[in-house]
Amino acid sequence: MPTGGSHDGGKDHDQSDLFLHGRLRAGDREAFEELYRRYARPAYGLAYRVTGHDLLAQEVVHDAFLALWRAPEAYDPARGAFRTFLLSLVHHRAVDTVRREERLRRRTERALNLEPTRDEDVAEGVVEEAWLAGRREQVRRAVSTLPPDQRTVLEMAYFGGYTQARIAEELGVPLGTVKTRTLAALRKLRRALYEREA
Amino acid sequence: MTLDAPDHDGIEELLAGYALQALEGEDAARADRLLADHVPSCVRCRETLADLRGLTGELALLAPPREPPETLLAALRRELAEPPVVRRRPVAAWVTAAAAMVVLGLSGWNAMLTQRVTRAEEFQSAMSEAFFTTANPASQTVQVSAEAQAPTRLYLAYLPDGNRMYLMGSGVPDPREGHVYWVWGFRDGTFVPIGAFLPHDGLVVLRIDAAPGAFEGIVIADEREGRIGRLPGDERWATRIG
């Protein structure tokens, strides 16, 4: 079962998240605010990266955290880290938003790069907990091992919000090739990030 | 996971695209059918979905973190301070539904539920939520349609201690002209309308904002649009919950 938490301090934080989630289920607002404090920055960073727009990113993060407050039982601890559940929820909502707002297709090309440039790596003044930064580095390393063609389809879908059909069109390859590359990429990431933790 | 289904590699490929929200057209329709028909009852696919969900959460860390404006937390605090929605108390949900019926009267329910007939643009949103619910191993799935009613397949999925249910299915025929399907919850011989829908190319994904513990079961009936009685009309499907 993937925990995403074997890195330094990760397991402790996963356990701490579980404790906070338990309090959240009981309607504890302080627990909600602590979870917000922990994950608002990566959530907002993700939402901004996908939507490319401050106000839309705020809307996405607002809706995701509100959904968490209203239906905390949607997260099941048996299925992995709370962090991945929440950020996956943010991603879903961000892509939904992009699809609604086609005008965002004009956003800058940097939204399509998995590897951020050095100056935007972590915005100045953003305080990030060390264990989360450690996990970020693990994910980066795992992604860096993917063949370029697999990385491309993954980044276009995940951060670009493109459908597989659109990716095939943009790259000039068959749709089946895009599907195959996507699955191969995700399988490799699963092995790299989860199986070594078992 | 077992390898007892020869097409599971193909299903995984489809679910990978679904988890990334990268499907459209026929692929999206196939995924919707899978999520409605196959996934709720397939342990392997539920595990695959959970893993893919985890990976979409991990990839989020590649985006540079950003400091959200302070107004965002302030807005959330205001939302949290509002009267709580019905949650975590199934009996209260039933009482609230019954009370609302009294306050609004049947015409009030009628207007409210007519507005809630599933629209195409809401379909994907409901499917996304149903995705998270069915990927949860604690979720319960009840078959609503009988085997003899194939190719119609309708399932009700929910978390036992949750405050929502999801009605999912495929091969659902359209109701009669000028009619819609209404979902009724029943308990102690009393019926309360809790949702309404029209199939979307035979597919149904309906979020029902009611706790599963609030009802003994549901009945789905073919009803004239814009009208509602005290009891279900032309009953088409029914099941007990739990």
What distinguishing features does this structure have?
heterodimer; A: 198 residues; mainly alpha; Rna Polymerase Sigma Factor, Chain: A; Arc Repressor Mutant, subunit A; 2 domains; 8 helices; 0% strand; disordered N terminus; B: 242 residues; alpha+beta; 4-stranded antiparallel beta sheet; 6 helices; 39% helix; 22% strand; globular
Q: What average pLDDT do the residues of chain A reach?
A: 82
Number of domains of chain B: 2
Q: What's the quaternary structure here?
A: heterodimer
Helix content of chain A: 55-70%
- End-to-end Cα distance of chain A, whole Å, is 7 Å
Major β-sheet of chain B, in short?
A: 4 strands, antiparallel
CATH A-level architecture of the largest domain in chain A: Orthogonal Bundle
Helix/strand structural class of chain B: alpha+beta
Rounded to the nearest angstrom, the distance between the terminal CA atoms of chain B is: 26 Å
Uncertain runs of chain A are 3-8, 106-110, 117-121
Count of individual beta strands of chain A: 0
**Major β-sheet strand ordering of chain B:** 1-2-3-6
Specify Rg of chain B, calculated over alpha carbons: 19 Å
Helix count of chain A? Answer: 8
Mean pLDDT of chain B: 76
| Topology order of chain B in helix (H) and strand (E) letters | HHHHHHEEEEEEEE
The coarse silhouette of chain B is globular
Give the DSSP E fraction of chain A (strand runs of 2 or more residues). under 5%
- The secondary-structure element order of chain A is HHHHHHHH
The third-level CATH topology of the largest domain in chain A is: Rna Polymerase Sigma Factor, Chain: A
What does this molecule look like?
The complex is a heterodimer of chains A (198) and B (242). Helices cover 65% and strands 0% of the residues of chain A. Chain A is globular, with a radius of gyration of 17 Å. Chain A has helices at residues 10-25, 29-51, 54-70, 82-100, 130-144, 148-158, 164-171, 175-193. With 242 residues, chain B is of the alpha+beta class. Chain B has two domains: 1-82, no CATH class; 90-240, no CATH class. Chain B has six helices and eight strands, in the order ααααααββββββββ. Chain B has helices spanning 8-19, 25-37, 43-58, 70-81, 90-115, 120-134, and strands spanning 140-143, 153-158, 165-170, 179-187, 190-197, 204-208, 217-224, 234-240. In chain B, the strands form two sheets. A four-stranded antiparallel beta sheet of chain B has the order 1-2-3-6, with helices on one face. A four-stranded antiparallel beta sheet of chain B has the order 5-4-7-8. In chain B, a hairpin with a 2-residue loop joins strand 4 (179-187) and strand 5. Chain B is globular. Residues 84-121 of chain B have low confidence and may be disordered. The chains are: A mainly alpha (198), B alpha+beta (242). At the A-B interface, helix 2, helix 3, helix 4, helix 5 and helix 6 of A face helix 1, helix 3, helix 4 and helix 6 of B.
